[in-house]
Amino acid sequence: MPAVFSVTSDQLNVWMVAFLWPFVRMLALISTAPIFSEASVPRSAKVGLAALLAMVVAPTLGPMPAVPLVSVGGFWILIQQILIGAAMGFSMRMVFAMVQAAGDYVGLQMGLSFASFFDPSSGGNTVVVARLLHVLTVLIFLAIDAHLMLIMMLAESFHTLPIADAPLAASGWFLLVSAASHIFSGALMLALPLIATLLTLNLAMGILNRVSPQFSIFSVGFPVTLLAGIGMLLLLMQYLAPFLEPRFAAGFTSTLEFLQGLRP
Questions:
Q1: Which of 141, 144, 249, 264 is the most buried (most CB within 10 A)?
Q2: Cβ contacts of residue 154 below 8 Å, gap of 6+?
Q3: Where are the beta strands (DSSP E) in 86-245?
Q4: What is the pTM for the complete model shown?
Q5: Please, what's the b/e burial string for 223-236 (b: 16 or more CB within 10 A of its CB; e: otherwise)?
Q6: Residue 239 in 3-state DSSP?
Q7: What is the CA radius of gyration of the chain?
């Protein structure tokens, strides 16, 4: 007599929440984290990667809260996982925002603020220098295996901050907001050598124009500024990776502190 396979509603609820809640946190991070959230990555690939990671990580997690999936408590846990995953992705994206801001500062000083084009990853016009620095940052991010570290941190987040129906602590959100202040300070540190050089050059040309009025500052000022800016960019490229590696490490550290700050 063949065996009869039966599934109760309680068993089905346990299986669904064991997969769905980790899947939602992973999909929220993949949708906001660097590299994975690029517009060039198909949505089906993002969903498939999140589902694959959920199937791998879910069996290693502890028991889930005894909350029905279709209930107010289940909906609240779902919202919590979306917020946690999105916040983790945004915390790592701050380094890329810092480089983007530095590229905007540099492009403005070089006179290339008008040289912009549509960037599909940001959905708007981007300065050419900012786009160049963004591409280099992506390559450095991949070269140091930071994308693998991001996935590992995502898997460890379920042990640092387990899935629960308890409310999240507010101190973690304050840590996330305070970490955003490093975007402006880091961008200024990255662009400061070039800004200082171009400011000195503009000051020298201004003094020269006062000493020699027949010197046409408008005809030679832009080419000299542009060449000096390109030369400084070539000199700064070799220091970009040593500058960004500690920032990526600080991003991972701040993300872990954020998760620990959310624990009730």
A1: 141
A2: 25, 26, 29, 53, 85, 88
A3: 116-119, 124-127
A4: 0.81
A5: eebeebbeebbeeb
A6: coil
A7: 24
Using 50, 70 and 90 to split pLDDT, how confident is the model at 177? confident
Transcribe 137-166 into DSSP letters: HHHHHHHTTHHHHHHHHHHHHHHHS---SS
* H, E, C per residue of 73-99: HHHHHHHHHHHHHHHHHHHHHHHHHHH
pLDDT tens for 194-210 read: 888 888 887 887 777 77
Six token digits for residue 220: 């030679």
What one-letter code names the amino acid at 165?
D
Domain ranges of the chain: 9-262
Q: How far is CA 218 from CA 32, 198, 201, 228, 239, in A?
A: 44, 15, 14, 16, 32
What's the pLDDT at 1? 46
User: Residues 251, 95: contact at Cβ < 8 Å?
Assistant: yes
CA 218 to chain centre: 40
The residue type of 140 is: I
For tokens 């000096």, what's the residue?
Answer: 228
Helix, strand or coil for residue 2?
coil
